[in-house]
Design a protein that fits this description.
single chain, about 70 residues, about 40% helix, elongated
Length: about 70
Amino acid sequence: IIRIVDSFEYKNYLCLVFEKLDYNIRNLLNENNKNGIEFLKIKSYTKQLILGLSFIHTNEIVHLDCKLIFY
């Protein structure tokens, strides 16, 4: 579950601002001493990502911040 923290219109587009999520793949790797990620976890994360992207594509939603963050 993710919270919407703001919304606004820009050039007749509805823009939604969601809360910042601090957990990313780098955190997951660090928790596992940088030994990689179990295949079943990768499979689960990939499935969730594909389902989410499929949903936003089907509903003609443009997502502008879909990236991995590396420090």
